[in-house]
Specification:
- The chain is built from 14 helices and 5 strands.
- The chain is mainly alpha-helical and 333 residues long.
- The protein has 2 domains: 213 residues, Rossmann fold (3-Layer(aba) Sandwich); 84 residues, Tyrosyl-Transfer RNA Synthetase.
- α11 packs across α13.
- It is elongated, with a radius of gyration of 22 Å.
- The chain starts with 8 loop residues before the first strand and ends with a helix.
């Protein structure tokens, strides 16, 4: 609670770029679900942000929006306890981003570590666009439009929140105290490896999908990368060098961790038998999510209704903020 007795405001979003996977559930969604009772939470579909990197092929975004929100709801987000909305339905996001763009120095954007990293990783497309360079300005508008106190992020995303704070600070310096300087709310983000040992990602083709059938999960995790030193069944290994062991750490009991650690180091257990101990937990964990998701999907129009209602709730807040911003800047009609 704030000193005034109101709940602190949390804002976060996710880009609709495809199906959600186990990494999204463990790294983001369960944290969001835990936050919705403690804070005044606003979770948005960041569909304009898709265009910063995938502007050449936006046609799949509408379908991805519905699929993603289905997973949010199946994970436990409750539209009665948080605000769920779609960014592009609120033109106030674009207006505030435009105004922030007028006061944001270009060097602030060029030093953004994600900007440099993605230009290297996404070398198959032209990212020399104003939209890609300036996406942190839109991100700041997304957050400050709702006067967020807290933004749940992993450690690697803290620089994004700091840039939002800098933009808010510069705005307030120029026009008066209107906007808060939100704090990063560090989220526990377990390391979730994909089936090939790299970070789980839809773009790598190594993800376990939230709606995946048990047989497929068992087969694909059964082939998951392990300690490369264990060439033969009789070779001892090191669990800390085994990608699959990171999922053991997330899912297995302390006793199971002790068993597989000893078995790996002594070659007393084979890699497949070791992975089976973890796989049963993953399958059991995703079963209720898949069932809830199917039930929600059967409710015709439900996702659209949730987004429509949430967008209207968000719109009321966004409009009030823009009145404050325009007044401060001398732009009121």
């Amino acid at each position: 609670m704030t000193s005034a007795g109101r709940k602190k405001i949390v804002v976060s979003g996710m880009r609709p770029t495809g199906k959600l996977h186990l990494g999204h559930l463990l790294g983001t969604l369960r944290n969001w679900v835990a936050l919705q009772d403690q804070y005044d939470c606003h979770f948005f579909v960041a569909d304009w942000h898709v265009l910063t990197t995938d502007y050449e092929k936006p046609g799949k975004v509408p379908g991805f929006v519905d699929e993603m929100v289905l997973d949010w709801l199946a994970a436990g987000l409750d539209p009665e306890r948080c605000v769920i909305f779609r960014q592009s339905e609120l033109l106030e996001h674009a207006e505030l981003a435009l105004l922030f763009g007028m006061i944001t120095p270009v060097p602030w954007l060029e030093r953004n570590p994600t900007y440099k990293e993605q230009k290297e990783q996404l070398s198959d497309r032209d990212l020399s666009t104003y939209g890609f360079l300036g996406y942190p300005v839109l991100q700041a508008a997304d957050i400050l439009l709702y006067k967020a106190d807290l933004v749940p992020v992993g450690v690697d995303q803290v620089p994004h929140v700091e840039l939002t704070r800098e933009i808010a600070r510069r705005f307030n310096h120029l026009y008066g105290d209107v906007l808060p300087e939100p704090q990063a709310l560090l989220s526990p983000t377990p390391k979730v490896p994909g089936t090939d040992g790299r970070k789980m990602s839809k773009s790598y083709g190594n993800a376990i999908w939230l709606d995946e059938e048990p047989e497929s999960i068992q087969t694909r995790l059964g082939k998951m990368a392990t300690d490369p030193a264990r060439v033969r069944r009789t070779d001892p290994g090191d669990p800390e060098l085994c990608p699959a062991f990171n999922l053991h750490k997330v899912y297995c009991t302390p006793e199971e961790i002790e068993t597989v650690t000893a078995g790996c180091k002594s070659a007393g257990i084979g890699c497949l038998d070791c992975k089976k101990i973890m796989i049963k937990h993953v399958v059991a964990d995703l079963a209720p999510h898949r069932e809830r998701r199917a039930a929600l999907a059967a409710r015709t129009g439900y996702v659209r209704d949730v987004l429509a209602a949430g967008t209207e709730r968000a719109r009321a807040i966004a409009r009030r903020t823009m009145v404050d911003v325009r007044d401060a800047m001398g732009l009121a009609g």
